[in-house]
Amino acid sequence: MVKAEDFLFRGLDKMGNTTNAVGSNVTAVNVNQLPGLNTFGISMVRIDYAPWGQNAPHTHPRATEILVVIEGSLLVGFVTSNPDNKLFTKRLEKGDVFVFPEGLIHFQQNVGKGYALAIAALSSQNPGVITIANAVFGSNPDISDDILARAFQVDKKVIDEIQSKF
Amino acid sequence: MVKAEDFLFRGLDKMGNTTNAVGSNVTAVNVNQLPGLNTFGISMVRIDYAPWGQNAPHTHPRATEILVVIEGSLLVGFVTSNPDNKLFTKRLEKGDVFVFPEGLIHFQQNVGKGYALAIAALSSQNPGVITIANAVFGSNPDISDDILARAFQVDKKVIDEIQSKF
Amino acid sequence: MVKAEDFLFRGLDKMGNTTNAVGSNVTAVNVNQLPGLNTFGISMVRIDYAPWGQNAPHTHPRATEILVVIEGSLLVGFVTSNPDNKLFTKRLEKGDVFVFPEGLIHFQQNVGKGYALAIAALSSQNPGVITIANAVFGSNPDISDDILARAFQVDKKVIDEIQSKF
Amino acid sequence: MVKAEDFLFRGLDKMGNTTNAVGSNVTAVNVNQLPGLNTFGISMVRIDYAPWGQNAPHTHPRATEILVVIEGSLLVGFVTSNPDNKLFTKRLEKGDVFVFPEGLIHFQQNVGKGYALAIAALSSQNPGVITIANAVFGSNPDISDDILARAFQVDKKVIDEIQSKF
Amino acid sequence: MVKAEDFLFRGLDKMGNTTNAVGSNVTAVNVNQLPGLNTFGISMVRIDYAPWGQNAPHTHPRATEILVVIEGSLLVGFVTSNPDNKLFTKRLEKGDVFVFPEGLIHFQQNVGKGYALAIAALSSQNPGVITIANAVFGSNPDISDDILARAFQVDKKVIDEIQSKF
Amino acid sequence: MVKAEDFLFRGLDKMGNTTNAVGSNVTAVNVNQLPGLNTFGISMVRIDYAPWGQNAPHTHPRATEILVVIEGSLLVGFVTSNPDNKLFTKRLEKGDVFVFPEGLIHFQQNVGKGYALAIAALSSQNPGVITIANAVFGSNPDISDDILARAFQVDKKVIDEIQSKF
After folding, report:
1. Could you report the predicted ipTM of this complex, rounded to two decimals?
2. Residue from B152, B154, B164, B165 whose CB has the most chain C CBs within 10 Å, to mutate
């Protein structure tokens, strides 16, 4: 039996806890939190940024993202695919809207003086998030440092150092 | 040549002019305003509501909508399809998120004391908007009052009266 | 176990009962009546029209419709979305085919002397039907006359009168 | 500039010429005849059958078909894919509706005394038709009889005989 | 619980048994063999060909195919839909890649001296295979020879002869 | 005018040049090389691996990949999305098939004694490739080391070192 509650999620006005390594917090409202989104191809997130906090480079494997700045100033960017790997960046102020195309690596950094806040929507009810640092250097179990040392063309001990942080 | 500007829209922080018959204003950011959205199946709108203003009953022919209240209190609702025509409503406060399923007739009404503001996203880069009153009673040219009188089971002069407003 | 019966529906030759307020009747053959349609993105309807009967303004939230006149003469029309709200109409005779684009408000009216009959197909196995008058003025429970009076820019008593019919 | 004519096709009431080898005729109304169908995923056909005529085994590479008998009696069937190759058949009378799943080989045969008529809809604006006999034995140029003799496990002269008819 | 085994299929290096009427063998790796493919819209096959063996004319009702020759020489072809029924053919050598568009009838024949091997991928996790000879002349139960004789414009005894082989 | 050449690509038997930093080479056959793939949702690649070479961690923003080992032994893996970041790995031998789900970070490493060869197919005619190291540390222009130092939780000089390699 369908009911109005299935279409309602309360509390996106609550600031997330940004006391963490990257200084940001994402509150997701997708099909896991809001069952009424099922099959509808859309979801929403709130992103809080401490001063100089960032939403670290990540991808959404199944969605494009459209983001609007509610408070503060953000430097945003995404990188195109091979062979160009071109970086597109913009400084966004309150009320600016930006698009991160499906599957591309992107990030936001708070470049204002205070806290920043953005609302974003994603073109899937289950978009997924792959934070590059966590997936590459913090997987369970670890990807072998042998593979990563060659992939990133650094010494294994550099890889080990990064892996120790995740 | 793709460039960062294609993915940027500025100015969604500007309050829309709600001095109109229904007391609301929608600022759209879809593929017409933001070409970088092309093929990506998502878009965004800002909705301003004067006190007791409403976003009158309407449908999006090609999109589901997810809405978050940024300021104020809204009564929101949608009606299911035949044969039930069941009305689902909720009173939303700041931070509440609601879903309007694809193609269904829905509305929002400002039920707080001051202005209200919502941000919504739609699951199409070109969702379309059909405001029921405008499409049914204000089309160009008019649908004949003969048809509408029977459809709405009222006298033609009632239809003529409504049509005269649109 | 799939069987031939899953792909068969009998009886679309039976004229529907058009003794009702609008003088028309729709017999649907979608996934609810014909399980073999599941996932296939198509369905069919038979529409009967008493003399001067109409299939009142409605939308299909998930489908485009293609209609062919089997008997009689129909005035058909649809209205485009905002901001144009342009009404497209044609008078159809036996053998004429017309398209109603996905999600747009459309209608047919019998403008011949006798009964009329159309067969239509829809681009979904579960297209849905939203009859505007029923959804807006006959929902369960009612949309408040406060909201509708402002949306349609008439007095509440006009709204109440229409609501009393549905 | 979109106009009402783009959504209109006239003349599907005209009986097709069934004086041909198989005794049937298909009149198509797809995006080639009716440009308003573009991107909408639906189209329509009229099928006429002379007494004992057939719409010979064929597939639609991009569509499911739903068919209703308007006049007469039809034996209809489709064959499932490997490894079962199961034949599903039904005798249809006026008003019966049947589904031919996407891409499967199917056929109709007039098994009544007079002419028969069906209207069918397809889940693509450009469904395509592959008549098995024509594609396999009447392609331009011919598929070599060497290949077909082995595929159908008969002598090349049998293949040559069939190829000579197409 | 998702596990790595769901994404693994072993043994596509094994040559299939080509000792059969057409001299070829298809080893399929689709969602039936490899559950991790579910919803992902892709699958793979290995095709072995004895000298002068063929993968007889067939269609995939839900997929386009891309094929690469690993060993040997193949004559490949597909036939376009009505009304052209145009045959496109190419002789492929090791390393050549060819595309068979969705739903079209196509075939491959080993035209080299030894065994041939191809790997192909299909744009569905459940593409289906309809071998024309088997579906038309070897269905269970048989399509009546009455229908097939007229469809292929030969004597019923020719049909009966072909049917006796399947 | 469609012609057979549009569906043909020659030369996937040629070993790619693996004399590079990661010891692997990808030869792509997508819609850029093979126009007949347009709209068909599939493409193919050949991947060569020098001894101990790797196809470094990367994603395809618009495709799932299915890979078969033609020669050699590969260690393959992919990492699930947040919050689990679970690493799935398997050692593949000749004839083994593996699936890399859409948008997830994955890699292959040659763990045999000689060269290795794989053929893979992707569920898009234009899947895209994002090599993590190149996109994150080798974009044009660079992502600021400020952002990356915090994202990867290492000193800027470590970031600078990695960036200097790309």
Report:
1. 0.96
2. B152
